[in-house]
Design a protein that fits this description.
Elements (H helix, E strand, L loop, with lengths): L1 H27 L1 E4 L10 E8 L5 E4 L8 E9 L4 E9 L4 E5 L2 E6 L4 E6 L2 E5 L5 H5 L12 H4 L2 H28 L10 H14 L8 H20 L8 H11 L7 H15 L7 H18 L9
Antiparallel strand pairs: 1-2, 2-5, 3-7, 4-5, 6-9, 7-8
Helix pairs in contact: 5-6, 5-9, 6-8, 6-9, 7-8, 8-9
């Protein structure tokens, strides 16, 4: 009976400590905009500082920051155990704007909690001066045309006709040369076939059994990055995870919600590649399955709609 009460007491104490840590993090979490003045098209630097005395894993769970575009995301842990997130945003609308609330996932050893950073308002100014905005700087130029310029109309007309004749003969000669030269069409291998082949080769290397977990995740991440670049025809290998997500939003045409799947894969891979955390076999299997899922989903043409 005594042991049972002690166990219950310890259980309540653990819950209280976790809840207290969460309240402490919420009460001391800071968010601030580093720019003194913001104009349309500027890179807006938005910093969030979260205390992390328990050294938990903290990750951003918000991807849609509309009407802002997320250009770059970086994360830094300070000596006093604070996690600093620096988000670089851009917007092309003037006036009062609101950065939506941000949701962070705090993952401890035994539980997972959510931290919400409230929305933040800012004012975006125009790059035009007041005279330009009111239309006062635009002058009528019809009366400024010199009569002398009209005398050159015939010369301009003759030069135009002569240029057209030269271009016509050049084009005709080029067309005849093209007809006489056999055209060799190279068949391009689909991006998904290349990705499937490389994923199979990676699995057959048995890097996990050999203890080369980080090497396995480096190659797995590279295959998915290369596939996305080949699929949507842009250079993706040298981009960071944040730059890749921004490039996908610009280059790829599919449902915006699917960015969450790609971002989760990139963050899980980066966490294992750049930290000392040893993933469980179940986590390795789930991340590998997610890589196959991305290739499976993005090869389907029906997903190519504008968000």
């Amino acid at each position: 009976m005594i042991f049972k009460k002690l166990f219950q007491l310890m259980f309540l104490l653990i819950i209280f400590l976790n809840f207290s840590n969460l309240l402490l993090a919420k009460s001391k979490a800071e968010s601030k905009i580093l720019n003194e003045k913001i104009l349309v098209g500027d890179n807006i630097k938005y910093k969030i500082i979260i205390p992390n005395p328990e050294k938990n894993v903290i990750s951003l769970n918000s991807m849609d920051l509309s009407p802002f575009d997320l250009i770059k995301k970086s994360q830094l842990t300070t000596k006093d155990n604070k996690v600093e997130f620096l988000l670089e945003l851009s917007i092309y609308e003037i006036g009062k704007q609101t950065i939506p609330e941000l949701k962070f996932i705090i993952s401890g050893e035994k539980n997972e909690t959510e931290l919400v950073i409230p929305s933040k308002e800012l004012v975006v100014g125009s790059v035009l001066n007041k005279a330009d905005e009111k239309g006062l700087a635009i002058k009528d130029i019809k009366d400024s045309i010199l009569i002398k310029e009209k005398s050159y109309f015939i010369i301009y007309l003759l030069l135009g006709v002569l240029s057209f004749i030269i271009l016509f003969f050049v084009f005709k000669k080029w067309s005849e040369k093209e007809k006489s030269t056999p055209v060799i069409i190279e068949e391009k291998i689909p991006a998904d076939e290349i990705a499937y082949k490389k994923l199979s080769e990676l699995i057959n290397q048995d890097l996990i059994k050999k203890g080369k977990v980080k090497e396995y995740f480096f190659l797995l991440s590279e295959i998915v990055r290369e596939f996305i670049g080949n699929r949507y025809d842009f250079d993706s290998i040298e981009l960071t995870s944040g730059e890749l997500v921004s490039a996908i939003k610009t280059e790829a045409k599919f449902n915006r919600e699917y960015l969450v799947v790609i971002n989760n894969f990139l963050e899980d891979s980066d966490l294992i590649k750049f930290s000392k955390i040893e993933p469980l076999s179940e986590e390795i299997e789930n991340t590998t399955k997610l890589a196959f899922k991305i290739v499976d989903d993005l090869k389907i043409k029906i997903m190519d709609w504008l968000w």
